[in-house]
Specification:
alpha/beta, six-stranded parallel beta sheet, binds adenosine-5'-diphosphate, binds zinc ion
């Protein structure tokens, strides 16, 4: 019987490490559970993946703790994560870590204990020869050691305090311990009426009268608590009371002092607040013949309980979601579960409400705005089989559902299914196919603008394909008009970024109380400031990229690394006071339109919908609600509004500049342009009695992604696109992967990347290496970067294994030259600029 197990650790090295189980524990009972281990004097959370039956010839450390009662990884999830690790060149431990909620990964923190109080004399002695050390000591004394090393470093403005801490420890003043940071349940404060008052109505009444005479606010609090108590709520959350009654903590403190109310802690539950429902009642909709046909066909596959893959191509508004809903219902009836993936931007409140209308509390929802704590609770509940449907973004592909009957990947073309950083750099859409094979269940990829990869696979017969060419409720697809920006400029028909036609149509809609969506895929006011005197453009300190000007906050922001600095009044090179704002972001579009309408004396409410205006929880819900109800006339937004918004009163979509993505130095630029235009256009005229209009402004009216999107002709688009991709050996015909090398030192980087390139096999059939090249942003967050691209043939290397071996071997050969270099390998990469 083995006493040893193999543990996968969340480190970039793809190896398993052997540990010993404690006495009295069966090694096989640890498999699939998290274990805490000591690795190179650090505590790490790994996963026990195998029994170790090898002969042990060396001393093996024991595991420190088994963190789970029940396994969190099944054999099937092991298979899946292992595949991800191999295909995407990540360590198994990294993939397992990505498959768990973030705070399942316990690590150690260093804690300091004061073991001897120094005398004043001792302190002044230290002060005399090491002032910083004395300051450190004083802070430690002040906090009685209860301060993290990170906070200490911040407070002392120091990058590394180890020598100082070490010195204090040598003097015998302090001791350093490693401590595990355990996940603690988040508690929140709650408030209730004191029990003795609730028991006796008379007493309560007299207290209430007394308070009512003195303080209106206090009385309000008390009566709210009482009313809710009568409805069966024994307490309310303190926060909600303060917010709801617009009161302050100090008012409540008076009541607690008088022992009228009590404040105590409760476990924070996932909030199930009653929210405005943003969806209509769809329960009585009769499905169309086309919808029913597709449901019937895919149902046959569901009944087979084996893997199959399907591409559902349906124009915007064609009723794909109701097809999913029908199929989900069928799977649930068979007592099986459904995994429903959506990209972040389409996981809008509207779609969530639609699914909840049908399946209520049986749906778990995972997106980026839920807290780590909620994520934890949802994950645990999924493990306990409490949900039938998991609806979530990329990482939800690893959800520990035990009895999957169907996987849906909606908006399958979305680049956000691909994780760029950190490792594992996986694509959840492609991973879903592998999961379907492992789980023996069908996988449906759905989109109004399928990716080249999926369209190609369907053409090969790898996926079954289904088409919906008409809108479900009989509405027509919108009419599209193209405005040539070059001509408009010549003929002086442009006001800022608005053509005469667009202005005219917007005003028409405002007068008719219909909604307008304006699409502009860049937030902020202007992509750059520019000094006309010396040509200076303020750049990010950490990246080789111009800072974006945000007028509202009067700041310059780097959209790559987040660096923020106040916008300068004067050019920091020549001192000129005439800095100009070049180009336009959503803020500027908003300002221009406001001005245009004001000049014409038109009253309208304009609202931005981008990352800046929706950063607060529920703000996007509010905006959509107001827009639906006609309180907002014009919504101006980024790609956030290209998806999942189904609002009948929208009859006009304006695309401010269709060329924005057209000239990205990326082979997917045309595909992206086609998809964005088609998706955004699809927001218009979604109700049967309305005639939608789309106005596309472009300086390149002949560019084929624009032309074919306007004609709604996806076949022609693919013909043209595939011709180009084929000539250049790009996906979908071949695999394109990227090796990124980074260093703070430019010379070290360039010499290393040359060595890397030279060590790649240069005439292996089916493999082509290109580079090294500098990307568009040659320095990012202080690191210089270079890329080597790999094109590899899917015919010669079907599973990707050969590529994997080549990269492994090359890395091994050059191992000794890797110093101060970061290497990121990105298989099937999406970020190529
Ligand atoms: P998609 O997901 O393809 O964009 P949706 O499922 O969101 O399309 O449907 C678009 C709109 O059409 C929704 O408002 C939906 O309620 C409505 N709809 C869907 N199917 C039907 C139908 N058979 N009859 C009438 N309306 C429908
Ligand atoms: Zn200047
Ligand atoms: Zn930056």
């Amino acid at each position: 019987m083995s006493r040893y197990i193999e543990v996968a650790l969340p480190i970039p090295v793809n190896e398993l490490y052997t540990y010993k189980v404690p006495d009295g524990v069966l090694a096989e009972n640890t498999i699939g559970k998290r274990v805490l281990v000591n690795f190179n004097n650090r505590y790490l959370t790994g996963v026990s993946v195998n029994l170790c039956n090898k002969e042990i010839q060396f001393e093996v450390k024991p595991i420190l703790e088994i963190l789970d009662e029940e396994p969190i990884f099944s054999d099937k999830l092991f298979q899946l994560t292992k595949w991800v690790s191999q295909y995407y060149f990540a360590s198994w431990g990294e993939v397992l870590k990505a498959a768990m909620p973030p705070n399942f990964n316990l690590t150690s923190v260093k804690k300091i204990e004061i073991i001897k109080q120094p005398t004043n004399q001792e302190i002044s002695e230290i002060q005399s020869f090491a002032p910083k050390r004395a300051k450190l000591l004083q802070i430690l004394l002040k906090y009685n050691g209860n301060i993290s090393i990170q906070s200490l470093q911040k407070e002392l403005n120091s990058k590394n305090l180890s020598p100082q801490i070490e010195a204090l420890s040598q003097r015998g003043l302090i001791a350093i311990h490693s401590e595990i940071q355990k996940q603690t349940e988040t508690k929140v404060k709650a408030i209730k009426i004191a029990d003795y008052l609730l028991d006796k109505e008379e007493e309560f009444n007299s207290v209430f009268l007394e308070i009512e005479n003195k303080s209106n606010k206090q009385a309000q609090i008390l009566s709210l608590l009482f009313l809710e108590f009568q409805k069966g709520k024994s307490f309310l959350l303190l926060n909600e009371v303060i917010k709801g009654l617009k009161t302050t903590y100090s008012v409540i403190a008076v009541l607690t002092k008088k022992k009228i109310v009590e404040i105590f802690e409760v476990k924070k539950e996932i909030s199930k607040k009653a929210q405005i429902n943003l969806s209509k009642d769809e329960s009585k909709i009769e499905l169309t013949e086309e919808q029913n046909k597709i449901i019937k066909k895919i149902s046959e596959y569901i009944d087979k309980h084996s893997f199959s893959s399907h591409l559902l191509y349906g124009v915007t508004g064609s009723g794909k979601t109701l097809i999913y809903i029908e199929l989900i219902r069928k799977v649930l009836n068979q007592n099986k579960q459904v995994l429903y993936l959506l990209p972040e931007i389409s996981l809008t409140p509207q779609i969530v409400d639609r699914i909840r209308n049908f399946f209520g509390e049986e749906v778990a929802i995972i997106h980026s705005k839920i807290s780590d704590n909620e994520r934890n609770q949802i994950f645990t509940a999924i493990l306990q089989n409490k949900y039938k449907i998991v609806m979530g973004v990329r990482s939800a592909i690893f959800s520990p559902l035990k009895n999957l009957g169907l996987i849906i990947v909606d908006e399958e073309h979305e680049p956000s299914y691909k994780q760029d950083n950190p490792s594992p750099r996986y694509n959840a859409r492609d991973t879903s196919i592998v999961r379907g094979k492992i789980e023996n269940c069908p996988v449906i990829l759905g989109s109004a603008t399928p990716s080249c990869e999926s369209w190609y696979n369907a053409s090969l017969g790898t996926h079954q394909i289904y088409q919906l060419n008409k809108r479900a409720d009989g509405a027509n697809l919108p009419n599209v008009e193209i405005v040539d920006l070059r001509e408009a400029k010549k003929e002086k028909n442009l006001k800022g970024n608005f053509s005469k036609l667009l202005i005219e149509k917007i005003i028409e809609r405002i007068n008719q109380k219909e909604g307008t969506i304006l699409f502009h895929n860049r937030r902020g006011f202007a992509p750059q400031l520019f000094c006309p005197d010396c040509g200076n453009v303020p750049m990010c300190e950490n990246c080789d990229i111009a800072l974006t000007y945000h007028k509202k906050s009067n700041k310059l922001v780097c959209h790559y690394c987040g660096y923020v600095t106040p916008a300068p009044k004067f050019c920091n090179v020549c001192g000129s006071d005439e800095m100009q704002e070049i180009g336009a972001g959503t803020e500027r579009i908003e300002e221009e339109l406001k001005q245009i309408l004001e000049e014409k004396g038109i009253n309208a409410r304009i609202q931005r919908y981008d990352r800046d205006s929706t950063s607060q929880k529920n703000s996007s819900r509010r905006i959509i609600y107001d827009f639906m109800n006609g309180d907002i006339d014009v919504l101006i937004g980024t790609q956030m509004l290209s998806k999942g918004i189904d609002i009948g009163r929208v009859t006009l979509v304006g695309i401010i500049n269709a060329d924005m993505h057209l000239f990205f130095p990326d082979f997917r630029a045309n595909e992206r342009t086609f998809q964005l235009l088609t998706q955004v256009s699809g927001r218009a005229g979604r109700k049967s009695n309305s005639n939608g209009l789309v106005i596309i402004q472009t300086a390149h009216p002949g560019a084929y992604p624009i032309v074919f999107s306007a004609q709604n002709n996806i076949e022609k688009f693919f013909d043209k696109e595939f011709e180009m991709r084929g000539q250049l050996n790009y996906p979908p015909f071949n695999r394109l992967s990227k090796i990124e090398m980074q260093s703070m030192n430019l010379d070290e980087l360039t010499s290393f990347s040359k060595i890397f390139f030279a060590n790649l096999p240069n005439n292996q059939a089916g493999f082509q290496f290109i580079g090294p090249v500098f990307p568009n942003v040659p320095r990012l967050a202080k690191y210089y970067r270079q890329f080597i691209f790999v094109k590899s043939s899917k015919k010669i290397d079907k599973s990707g294994e050969k590529l994997n071996i080549i990269l492994h071997n090359t890395l091994q050969k050059i191992e000794s030259t890797i110093k101060n270099i970061r290497i990121n390998i990105d298989i099937d990469s999406y970020q190529n600029m």
